[in-house]
Amino acid sequence: MKVTKAVLPVAGLGTRFLPASKAIPKEMVTVVDKPVIQYVVEEALAAGINEIVLVTHSSKKAIEDHFDVNYELEAELERRGKDALLEVLKQTTPPGLKVTSVRQGKALGLGHAVACARPIVGDAPFAVLLPDVLVGQSGSTVDLADMTARFNASGHAQIMVEPVPEERVHQYGVVDLQGAELVPGAVAPMQRIVEKPKREEAPSNLSVVGRYILPARIFELLDQTGPGAGNEIQLTDAIASLLGEQTVEAYRIKGRSYDCGNKLGYLEATLAHAAAHPELGEDFRALLKDYR
Ligand code: G1P
Q: Is the omega angle on the peptide bond into residue 19 within 30 degrees of 0, that is, cis?
């Protein structure tokens, strides 16, 4: 079965992003001219994934609205002959994109959020994309597309990883590849994965970025997974069970990631995307010279 579905956990309250996230979801905060979540959905589409399952919360309806057709706005832009804007608007809901949502009533952790999507995902393999993280592409390469292609060919779960400085390993899931060196774009079978290890106990400095391709078996394993780090049900712990049964591969990112869950990471994402923007990039780079 090919990967065509992605689960996006968006129920979190976004306290690290206050006050911006007081009345709008943190996923709707803008990077240059699009909300963060739109970049993530575009990344999924570029990897051949067109069914998005939002695991969401009652306070975050703006996300569903963003991916719905705004008929009144479209009709008004059409009436005024604003064709370019109409096209921009239509690109938020390209043909073939299917967005559904399911509620996560209680914040019991990432593993619990993913388990909430089971009734919609069913028996199919699926991707998990954490929308706090933007994955910037290197050239024309879409890392997630490489991961889905690998899964579609081998059936082996794919977990995106990236090296981080040792003082930050405690913030992430960290993988053990028994010392195997991974060049960007390469994979290696995972021996172990641990959620938020202490620096001295971390098996490597390869952290989990927030992009996963998983078989449906993970749902059964999540059912058997109790609270772990932070007293939350951790996706990492279910992946640890999965790799006891079958091959799970770590895939090293070729592009780079931007952690928009914290303010400095968000600013860097904004800078990078503004500098590379097809219409604004050149002027923006010139503008930056005034702020050195
Ligand atoms: C989650 C995952 C963690 C991963 C991280 C990436 O942690 O549990 O394994 O490394 O996302 O951003 P969180 O950031 O939700 O604490």
A: yes
Maximal CA-CA distance, the chain: 63
Rounded average pLDDT per 10-residue block, the chain, 292 residues: 96 88 93 95 95 96 95 95 93 93 94 98 97 80 93 98 96 94 95 97 96 98 96 98 98 93 92 93 95 86
Cα of 79 vs centre of ligand 1, distance in Å, is 46
Q: Say yes or no: CB of residue 212 within 6 Å of ligand 1.
A: no
Q: 238 CB under 6 A from ligand 1?
A: no
Ligand 1 pocket check: which of 8, 208, 209 to mutate, most ligand atoms within 8 Å of Cβ? 208
Question: Is the model's pTM score more than 0.90?
Answer: yes
Fold of domain 5-291: Spore Coat Polysaccharide Biosynthesis Protein SpsA; Chain A (3.90.550)
Q: Is the dihedral of CA 185, 262, 132, 12 positive or negative?
A: positive
DSSP per position, 31-60: ETTEEHHHHHHHHHHHTT--EEEEEE-GGG
Element (H, E) at 161: strand 157-163
